[in-house]
Amino acid sequence: MRELWIELGERSYPIIIGDGLLNRLPQALSDRGMGTDGDLFIITDENIAPHYLSGLEAALKEQGYTVNSFVVPGGESSKSLKWYENIMTEAIQLGLDRKSVVIALGGGVVGDLAGFVAATYMRGVRFVQVPTTILAHDSSVGGKVAVNHPLAKNMIGAFHQPELVLYDTATLLTLSDREIRSGLAEVIKHGLIWDEAFLNWCDEHADALLKLDAESLSYALYRGCEVKASVVSQDEKEAGLRAILNLGHTIGHALEAVAGYGELLHGEAISIGMVGSARLAEELGYPATIVERTQSILERYGLPVRIPKHLDTDAIMAAMMRDKKFKSGQMNFVVPVEIGKVEIQTGISPTLVRSIVDDLKGEV
Amino acid sequence: MRELWIELGERSYPIIIGDGLLNRLPQALSDRGMGTDGDLFIITDENIAPHYLSGLEAALKEQGYTVNSFVVPGGESSKSLKWYENIMTEAIQLGLDRKSVVIALGGGVVGDLAGFVAATYMRGVRFVQVPTTILAHDSSVGGKVAVNHPLAKNMIGAFHQPELVLYDTATLLTLSDREIRSGLAEVIKHGLIWDEAFLNWCDEHADALLKLDAESLSYALYRGCEVKASVVSQDEKEAGLRAILNLGHTIGHALEAVAGYGELLHGEAISIGMVGSARLAEELGYPATIVERTQSILERYGLPVRIPKHLDTDAIMAAMMRDKKFKSGQMNFVVPVEIGKVEIQTGISPTLVRSIVDDLKGEV
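ok -> structure tokens follow
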């Protein structure tokens, strides 16, 4: 079992990672000052609920907790104002008060949605995350919570730190191969932006991680969270440094939008985006070895490194220009300047970006 | 012109109060670091817009600001998730980004709604309040923002401090007599809970305040904000002390709910509630002079001090028991223990409260 303390002054909290931890949730809640006087409200989705919900509820009730739960449909469409309102209605009807604790049991969608409920129910109640995907290691640090607007993702949200993150690596065994690879893309990203030694470790432990070896997975999630925490603790409200976490996300978000959410998983899209950023670095005069290293580790994890040919270049460019990071026509990019170090480069010409997009399609 | 600095660490902000200040908004924005690189988004209602919106927009545009506005219907019904979503849609379509500033031009409803938009648009943008009612002096301190849920008021919200509050007492001249009296009830409350000398001043200046004498009004708003700020700065997130601001609100909210919103204005309802709290204090052994003093100053301002006979006692009691302050069946009340000082009393018997409600109806 590993414990990582996210240092954010009075909003500090622990991330506890290990194999078979789910049944420790009652004790962990109690250790963090969330006793049985506060009602628990578990928010999960219909994919996760059949595996873990009834067991978790039983374990909590046995320790004297009052437990209610709300199950949303699986997938991104639940991260909407409509489901947010449905959950709020249920919370009010249940009579939940300010002592209540919202628990997110699931991946990033459930975490974001439940977190926004916790951030705004009665102006904020306590929040606990129980992630069940690898990708969620990324969203379990940073306090970003949100729902989507039909016109754009994550436009409605808040910063709301959890009191506790409990990460049971055993819950990851139900993930598909593709979800595992996609989730590990964010782990690799944390190596690329911050820590070459960790990237090397990821390279050496690729087989173990892809097989979900509990010990390797526990360390990878721990170190991924730790890197993100190092960045976030220096920039809690996203004023500057935090932007480096977006390596690969500018192209990645555009690909997700153009492909239609679901065709490319998030990690797959940012995998391609990270190769694009490395290509951009090369064009800007940084060593070509960055491209080779980025591409080889992603390929080792079976992640895509080229843009699917049927995606329209104009549409990809248009999606990037709409991205909130390109206000006022300026294009900013996070680019790797060496392995384990990135910088934000401003004033990138759209023509250059377009040539890289074309290139990433042509080389398939 | 008076300036009061609300001290909340890095979230500190000034409240500027004076006669004819509206045209100083461009300068005040600039002084607070909100330059023309951030788009302004004014949220107001259809009662206020005809008086001030076009003039304010023109003054801001003249100084180089990009200004957009959104007009909601007047009244409490605009403080809904539906209008919140409409405003979010407009903000996204306008392409507002994180540098944008949301300006609330109006009373408490507009302030709460616009504040919740500012708290959650792209996870939070800057917020400025331009209150146009006396009552809004109360909501301009404390950072509480919210929308209503059909099942209960203010259930969905956040804490989001403004960067600036600009209070032009000239905008109060369009208020009706009843709105003026109702607004002054919260001013009097601040005297009752915190400052006997200020209560005496309110007594002496009743005629001037009711006539909206600019100098008296400016001081009353200043001191009212200052009292509230003293309480809030010791308890920003409403953990304890801040509850004393609810003097009169427990009975008051129940009366508003039972009468149907609109029959009793908020200040009228809490006026009756404050007399009820004083009666409760008397029953608990505190001097009867508290009741006399409370009642006489409220009567002096033409505020109601008795519960309208047609309101059903059972319904009033039921509304109070539903109130979030009475979880677990315990009744807590803010009671005046002397003039200018209140305490939170727990374990009040519902039977005693009921006898006071009956009493307040019977003595009409």
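The mean pLDDT of chain A is 93.
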